[in-house]
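QA checklist item 7 of 12: single-chain prediction sanity check.
[x] sequence parsed
[x] length recorded as 673
[x] structure emitted
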Amino acid sequence: MTVPQHKRLGLPLALSLALHIVLVLLFAFQFDAMREVKEPPQPEIIQAVTVDAAQIEAALQARQQAELQRQQRIEQQRAAEAQAEQERQQAEAQRLRQEAERQQATAEAARKAEEFKVRQAEELERQAALEARRKLEEEAKHRAESEERQRQQTMKKLADQKHREEEKRQDEAEAKHRAEEAAKHEAAEAKRKAEAEAIAKREAAEAAKDKAAAEAKRKAEAEAEAKREAAAAAKEKAAEAAKDKAAAEAKRKAEAEAEAKREAAAAAKEKAAEVAKEQAAEAEAKRKAAQESHHKAELEAQRKADLAAQRHAEEEARRKAEAEERRKAEQEAKQKAEEEAKREAAAAAKEKAAEAAKDKAAAEAKRKAEAEAEAKRAAAAAAKEKAAEAAKEKAAAEAKRKAEAEAEAKRAAAAAAAKEKAAEAAKEKAAAEAKRKAEAEAEAKRAAAAAAAKEKAAEAAKEKAAAEAKRKAEAEAEAKRAAAAAAAKEKAAEAAKDKAAAEAKRKAEAEAEAKKKAAEEAHRKAELEAEMKAEAETKRKAEEARRQKEERELALKEALEEERQQKEKEEKAQKAAESAAQSWVNSHFRPRVENRWVLAPSAQGGGSCTIRVRLTPAGGVTSAEASCSGGDAAFERSAEAAVYKAAPFPMPPDPLVAKQLLGQAVRFKFNPD
């Protein structure tokens, strides 16, 4: 540690003052010990002066040289300290840059790790969602297959039961028809041709109706198939459009991320350039300040340096605390953003799963509707086949009945011939037979009328059954049209639902993207604000350091100026005291010594002699040493005796002049004739 300036300046002065005090005390002690003796007249004292001027000049030169060397040492030390301070600041700047780079690398690694974690979590969630969807699809498929098997079994049972009921009904109708045919055998021959024509007409009408129904069914199936193909094509187009949209969105996101990275790199580069410029400016300012601070006082510089180091340590601690707080705040914001992103991803996954479940349920409902429509078509086809078989059986029965009627007619014709022969043979029974025949004819007419009425009732029943079958066919056709309309409506609803789901998904993605962008923008703003705050804090610290440096320089300049003025004042006072002391010696000391100087008889005289005298504050002599050029001891002793005899000397009232006389030896120079 360097020695304080006031100690280094005060040490020579203290030593000089102590030496002067000791000399004055010795001089006063020796001066008091001398007694006054009457002496003969003394030779004339040629000159009396104060302390040796050459020694004083040499001492002043030595002091000035020592002061110059001390100033040079101070300048060198200041230059070394300025160089060390500059190197320390450069090292600190390098350390801060390395710290910033390390923090940036750490943040980048943390960001990449977080992105990898997020991607991994999203991948796990997507796989879990796919697995859940696959399980749901398998369960739905199993349920659908089970329901389909149950439905087919139920339909098979119902078809078997219906077939049995139809066979039973046909058997009953056939038995009834045979009984009716047996009852109305005779009356039905007349109406056989009309019935055959009506049957032919009905068959033609039924054939035309079946053909029209088959044509309508074919057209409906073709239209349904076309609608299904159109819906599939639309769905594929929507899927392709969604894929293209997702690809475009991913591309846009990648371009936005790349653009953001380029902007961040450019901003970091600009910031690094600005930091480099600021550091260069600070280094230049510090270099100039170091050059200007070479002439500062060492004590003040050391004290201010200690205070600056303490403040720097406090500022460093506060900066670290603020950096730690910023880091914690950024970490908390990042954690909140990650949690928000995870929640949004989970909500999106749930929405996707719900949409997938809805799509699956809609597909399942659609498949069930198609299966039911297919079952209805199959039932209609089976019913149609049964009706055709029944018609065939009815035609066969009608042909059989006609054959039997023709055989019966032949038998009736034979019987009539026999009857005619019998009538010819038994003419007398003709009247009775005619009467019987008339009665029989009347009965036959009545039976024919009854049979005709019964036939009409059966015909009406058949027409009613045909009308009912027609109504049922029309109802089935209407049901098919309604089912087709419902299927189309359901398809439209499904398409609208898919569109709404796609729109909701797009909106959710847009909202998620907006939230992500907002979070990134907030994070970027927070980083920018933190950087601006740090930059402002750095500028403030630099300004504070500059201001403190200027204050230290000003204080040092003031102290140096005050010290210089004090030195000038002391030098002027010293010169004035020396002049006054010389005048006091010439006016008060010299006459007393002249009056008491007695030259010894053995003294040879000649030459010059100088006596060094030290005084006490009271004017006493502590020591007197004579030094003559000729080396005459008697002459030297006479000179010393004159000084002791003249004591005590009157001291000047001015303390500075008295101090000048006491601070150094007073010399008397004798040069007798």
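[x] summary fact logged: The radius of gyration is 70 Å.
[ ] second reviewer sign-off
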